[in-house]
Design goal:
By secondary structure, this protein is an alpha/beta fold. It has helices at residues 45-52, 75-79, 97-102, 117-129, 145-158, 175-192, 203-209, 227-230, 233-240, and strands at residues 7-16, 19-29, 34-39, 60-65, 68-69, 82-85, 163-167, 195-199, 212-217, 220-225, 244-248, 255-259. The chain has 2 domains: 1-81 and 162-178 and 189-264, P-loop containing nucleotide triphosphate hydrolases (Rossmann fold), CATH 3.40.50; 91-160, no CATH class.
Length: 283
């Protein structure tokens, strides 16, 4: 099992240029659990993840890892503890799958250390876990979107960090591969205790796979807690501007959100009139 690490944000304000995206946000990521960040488009989910991984400096406030400000930690020291799979990463032209996944081992390479058997094992394990071993010698340029996404996840796994941040890890994947990836991340959490924080658009997958949900709305923390606490009809209405009906997922027992659109509501059931007196046929 991995060492529990504390990751939190304190009065965090983030933005680009003159635009503020996140304002005065406080949150705590439960250690050794799976946290999903949810919210409407442009609410700040990816921006928050970028700041938590030190890619975006805060305007105000701070991100704290084990009592230290993330943005003050040396990059290589941080990369041994915290890994990031950003949204829509770009691979160097012509690089093979094996070489890209091998780059996940860079934080573990010292000035005088060489590639060793442990690095080989980490890469092989990551390729096997993501079912990309057969693609190892192929160029990233030749792969489909779904294949590339699985390779990027393999690179993040090869880094073997105790904390793993993923921005939309199921992007470009069909339904079966989405479940496969989320099952893989759950296995990683259960077997190694890896703390996982991921941005997900699918509320029902987030509720099924995460222990803890963080819902953002208009650049602020709207709700945080268990899926049952966060995925409510009121929270969906506020955070997504969507009317819904919440039921129990018959497969997992987690909350299941059924969106209510204008064209898919059942018409009211008409009540048949009360029967009148039976006429007397002999009258």
């Amino acid at each position: 099992m991995t060492t529990p690490h504390s990751l939190s944000a304190e009065r965090l304000t983030l933005g680009y240029g003159d635009r503020t995206v996140i304002e005065s946000l406080d949150l705590v990521v439960p250690p050794n659990g799976i946290t999903a960040i949810v919210g409407a488009n442009a609410c700040g989910k990816s921006t928050l993840l970028r700041s938590m991984s030190r890619l975006l400096a805060p305007r105000e406030g701070r991100v704290v890892l084990d009592g230290k400000e993330v943005h003050r930690l040396p990059a290589k020291e941080l990369a041994r503890t915290l890994g990031l799979l950003p949204q829509s990463p770009v691979a160097p032209e012509g690089i093979t799958v094996a070489d890209l996944v091998g780059r996940g081992r860079h934080p573990h390479q010292g000035v005088f250390s060489r590639w060793n058997e442990k690095d080989d094992d980490a890469v092989a394990s990551a390729l096997e876990a993501t079912r990309t071993m057969t693609l190892a010698d192929r160029s990233m340029d030749e792969l489909s979107g779904g294949q590339r996404q699985r390779v990027w996840i393999a690179m993040a796994l090869a880094q073997q960090t105790d904390l793993l941040l993923l921005d939309e890890p199921t992007t470009f994947l069909d339904a079966s591969h989405q479940i496969e990836v989320l099952d893989l991340l759950t296995d990683l959490n259960h077997t190694r205790g890896t703390t996982i924080v991921m941005v997900l658009h699918d509320l029902n997958l987030a509720a099924r796979y995460a222990d803890h949900l963080i819902a953002l709305a208009n650049g602020r923390l709207h709700a945080a807690g268990s899926p049952a606490e966060v995925l409510t009809e009121e929270n969906v209405r506020v955070a997504f501007g969507l009317d819904s009906h919440i039921i129990e997922d018959p497969v997992s027992g987690s909350p299941l959100m059924l969106p209510i659109g204008r064209h898919h509501t059942r018409p009211p059931v008409s009540t048949p009139p009360e029967p009148g007196p039976v006429p007397n046929a002999h009258r």
